[in-house]
Amino acid sequence: MAELSDKAREEFFSEAQEIIETLSRNLLSLDSTIKAGISDPSLINEAFRAVHTLKGLAGLFGAARLGALSHRLEDVLDDLRLGRINLGQDVLDVLFGAVEAYTRILQAEKSDSDEELDVEQLFVDLERIGAGATERESPVADYELDPGLLAVLTEYEEHRLRANIELQMQLYRLRVQFDLSTIDKVLEEMKERAKRHGEIITYLPTGEATSADTIELDLLMASRDDLATLIGSLGADNVVIEEIPRRARRSHPATQPPRRPTSLGRPDSVGLQPELERAGLEQAASLRSLTQTVRVDIRKLDHLMNIVGELAIVRSAFGRVAEKLRGEGQRKLAAELQRLHRNFDRRLGEMQDGILEVRMVPLGQVFDRLARVVRQISREVGKEIRLVITGAETEIDKLIVEELSDPLMHMIRNAIDHGIEAGQGRVEVGKPLAGTIALNAFQKGNHVMIEVEDDGRGIDLSKLTEKAISLGKLARSEAEEMSRDEMLALIFLPGLSTRESADDVSGRGVGMDIVKTNISKLGGVIDVHSESGIGTKMTITLPITLAIVSALLIQAGQHTLAIPLSSVSEAIAFDEAAVRSVDGREVITLRGQTLPLCRLDRLMALESSPDSASRRRFVVVAALGQRRLGLVVDFLFGQEDIVIKPLGKSLSGVRGFAGATELGDQRVGLVLDAAGLIEEVLAGAEAPRRLERASG
Amino acid sequence: MANLTQSTASRLARRIGDRGPVREFLMFALAGELYGLELTRIKEILSPPPITTVPRAPRNVVGVCSVRGLLVTVLDLRRTLHVEERPLTRRGRILLGAADSGEVIGLLVDEVRHVVRLAANEIEPAASALGGDVSEFVLGIGRPAGEFLILLDLPSVVSG
């Protein structure tokens, strides 16, 4: 790749990435329209434009491999949109293959590797498709069309004309007077209204006008409706609609319009020259829209967020100075400073929200990638899968989105491979042939929930426990005592797979334990529900952002600790007398429900503060997903917005902390990892922890 | 600090003269012994800010502190080197150095002395000076102007 500044390179990669994602989305939509039996030419057009832009970009940045692929793909898409090739599943397969190849090429370019990428087969496939392009006999000659009009049709318009005729549409000529000052708007409106009846294929000035301020156009329209309907809908004083009659079929067809030579023979140069004749004016429009956005490295946002964090410390200092002034009797000055302090506080809050908003991206980004995976896997394993996505617009921190795609991919692979039954098996139990996988996202308070749900056979608990026992991860006596939820939790054990044989799709059962680890790294938890014969639902609960969080500051022993508020449901006074011991574990009863307790000072072996025995203590109820845990603490300081910084690598083995934060007076406070603590304490009673100890 | 080490270094340079490749070491005291760390490994010398202890951390970790917004893990060299533990005096300092992983680590020492320049022939390899069974932290023994200096290898100190 040519020498470029890092910034330009970054821009190039993220823009290329975006375009490839757009392309992938278009192909997915095409896939579903084909299945529904509709053809939507605008989707092929968009895909064509995406590839065309990518080709230009590749040329600009000297990315030869990217350019070569775009070049060939562009030819195929051009043949598709002009109807020279029929769009079927086999063609789509190759196109999806191209998306995968793009991704690999981009990665190679990114790491500056010159490694040989295996795209030969793809090129051969593209070539094969291109070779299938056929010239078709023009049925256009059957109509009494103005030869002047036919001569100026673009190749694309001609294709649309032919396609419409093949669909048995009737052709109409609309002679319309437009006011020169409003022609753009009125013409657009006209096209929009015409869509209900068919399609306006082209338009041409007639050269006749009734006054200097008007222009007369002939619009060529294809419609399934009859003349009367059209006149009723589109007719007006300035609109004259005529049906274009079919002419009697002649013995020799009209001369075919000239076709551009097939472009596959062209040398593999990556041209900078935009091919405006192909991409048309729409290209200019898409370029303009790009300038509305700015790409920002997320580390810069982190930096800004750190500054906001430091400003928050300054803000607290303001507050203290104001208090001090009041104490010294300087009431007027104190009030003035207090007002400034409030103002500062509000603006700082706005700034913080603004930065957070910039970090947010819709989950649709990762869902689109998953849709591609679903299509690919379902074709590989020969199961028909319907993917239903809701809540793709739900926003979440960019960094979380990046980390989500692998875990979600594992879950979906598992669902298709282990969950959904093979076609015949589904029919036998009275389910529709196509399996359904639902991917639902929604916001719930400070959390984003993502559900992956399938309507497959469900998790077979007896097989699962047998497998765990045969792998030596579980004693039979333990298995007999386990609750349903404890059994379901077995799927998160390393090395467990309920299918007898390992295969390409779900690998060797390495999936779910890694999924769980990755999700908890993001501060999230995962819950499983499964009904035999009905399906499995996995729910991921994630914080909305990792950048800044509201936290409850508490004291335990001599430590000031922060607990993210997102995982705190409430805090209550601690009554030592209400503590009961169940099976050697301390619990209290909160509103009729049993709440397991964890004494932070004992768990962490904290030095206790001298007066802790006599003081009133508190229970902070941490809740994540379905699980709750009462943390016994010495004191509650209140709520504060904090920036969490990760602990260094040398402390990576320390469990129970999500990081550290600055407390303002130059001190550092540790941030508790609520998910980790809940896991650690509650898992003591659940199966997996016990098993880890047994096997380790 | 930078000015001090510069002038010290140039003074020493004049005294030593030209005796082949020379390495610079920062000399510091710990439990009555003198130690050296290669100067290029040290990013900064700090008066200790408040340090927050980390429960469950490895024994040689004192805790974490913030250096202008950067979170630094502080190690107690006494615990790493198994020497007598004593509370810090006002001369106590933190040496900031980077581990191979890129993590910034603080090393707690009793007192920082000055920079010494050692030519290759002034450094005894650890094995020949101390026999085979040497701690992996020791690079060698330096003998500048009659002093006895234990030279430490920063990467193994911070990863140990």
Structure description:
Chain A folds into 5 domains: 6-135, Four Helix Bundle (Hemerythrin (Met), subunit A), CATH 1.20.120; 139-243, Alpha-Beta Plaits, CATH 3.30.70; 298-360; 363-543, Heat Shock Protein 90, CATH 3.30.565.10; 548-695, CheA-289, Domain 4 (OB fold (Dihydrolipoamide Acetyltransferase, E2P), Beta Barrel). Chain A contains 22 helices and 22 strands. A 6-stranded mixed β-sheet of chain A has the order 14-18-19-17-16-15. In chain A, strands 6-8-9-11-10 form a 5-stranded mixed β-sheet. A 5-stranded mixed β-sheet of chain A has the order 20-12-13-22-21. In chain A, strand 16 (585-590) and strand 17 form a beta hairpin. Chain A is globular, with a radius of gyration of 33 Å. The model of chain B has no long low-confidence stretch (mean pLDDT 81). Chain B is globular and about 45 Å long. Chain B has a single domain (2-159), classed as Beta Barrel (OB fold (Dihydrolipoamide Acetyltransferase, E2P)), CATH 2.40.50. A 6-stranded mixed β-sheet of chain B has the order 8-1-2-11-10-9. Chain B has 4 helices and 11 strands. Classes of the chains: A alpha+beta (696), B alpha+beta (160).
